[in-house]
Write a structure and sequence with these properties.
This protein is mainly alpha-helical and 327 residues long. Helices cover 72% and strands 0% of the residues. The N and C termini lie far apart (73 Å). It is a multi-pass membrane protein.
């Protein structure tokens, strides 16, 4: 008959085995119910964004390409990050040291990519609002595609460099058998993945806000002699400012969901992977990836129209990609 001590071990036959940590009912509810639900919703909603922008030619604009890239990174959060994180926070790791490193590496490619996409969206709005006349030539589709490719390439390279030590000597950071531990340079990670992107986003959007206020005052002070020209200019400017406000909401939501985790890191508190605090912080990250398509639904009429066309299977018709979804 097993003793109580043996029953608490991940591998009762091994003296070097890790001990199982019992979970509270609240933790179990968060991990096995709430996180999978958020994961499924995140995948479905972001898949709708990807299909909409990819299928309808009218939506192939530089700004929407950035939204497409963001949707891909959010999709990967729901598809890869959540399942792997559930495995990593289990009391016992049963899949071996190589699977531990791969399970830690493959999903988190999307996390730096999300921050990178947010920076690119801020740059897009900055150029569109602050330099509207040269925006079509500065940020062409080809340029934006190149920037997106660089963003994803950097994300992959960044994670490879951080995990090279873990790959060279598998399992050397484990204190017992049945544990999955990897190490990263916390200071460098904090600077590259949080401080630099967040600083860039805030600086760019503060500049966008200042210019937007200035433009709004300028619009009201135009003389009646150039009424027609003003009307055309105002239409363009209002369109760009509306897009800036919408994407500003996306950026603010991103900051609200990601700042708590990195705020804890800045405070010097060591966050254990399996701790309740880490689980709550991670749910905030999933919530951010799930919330972006919801924002598009409320703000963008074209997204609501695309969803209707997708669910009614209208996109299966020939030449449906040329359907006008923008007014």
């Amino acid at each position: 008959m097993e003793t109580l001590e043996e029953a608490e071990l991940c591998f009762p036959q091994l003296n070097t085995s890790c001990r199982k940590r019992p979970r509270s009912q609240t933790e179990a509810l968060l991990i096995y119910t709430l996180m999978p639900c958020f994961s499924l919703i995140t995948v479905v909603l972001n898949l709708l964004v990807i299909i909409s922008i990819s299928h309808f030619r009218q939506l192939h604009t530089p700004t929407n390409l950035l939204l497409l890239s963001l949707a891909v990174s959010d999709l990967l959060v729901g598809l890869l990050v959540v399942p792997s994180h559930i495995l990593l926070i289990e009391p016992c790791w049963l899949l071996g040291d190589l699977a531990c490193v791969l399970c830690s590496f493959l999903p988190v490619i999307s996390v730096p990519a999300t921050a990178g996409n947010m920076v690119l969206i801020s740059v897009d709005r900055y150029v569109a609002v602050c330099d509207p006349l040269r925006y079509p030539t500065k940020l062409t589709q080809k340029t934006v595609k190149g920037l997106i490719l660089l963003c994803w390439a950097f994300s992959v390279l960044y994670n490879l460099l951080f995990l090279c030590d873990n790959l060279r000597q598998l399992g050397r950071f484990n204190s017992c058998y049945g544990e999955c531990v990897i190490t990263v340079n916390g200071t460098v990670d904090l600077v590259i993945r949080f401080i630099i992107p967040i600083s860039a986003i805030i600086i760019l959007y503060v500049r966008v806000f200042v210019v937007a206020v200035s433009q709004a005052r300028s619009m009201r002070s135009h003389v009646a002699a150039v009424k027609l020209q003003r009307s055309l200019t105002v239409t363009v400017q209002r369109s760009e400012l509306k897009a800036a406000r919408t994407l500003g909401v996306v950026v603010v939501v991103f900051l609200m969901c990601y700042c708590p985790y990195y705020g804890i890191s800045l405070s010097g508190y060591n966050l254990m992977t399996s701790s309740s605090t880490n689980i709550v912080m991670f749910i905030l990250v999933i919530f951010n990836s799930c919330l972006n398509p919801v924002i598009y639904t409320f703000v963008y009429p074209w997204f609501r129209k695309c969803i209707k066309l997708i669910f009614t299977l209208q996109i299966l018709k020939s030449r449906s990609c040329y359907t006008k979804v923008l007014k």
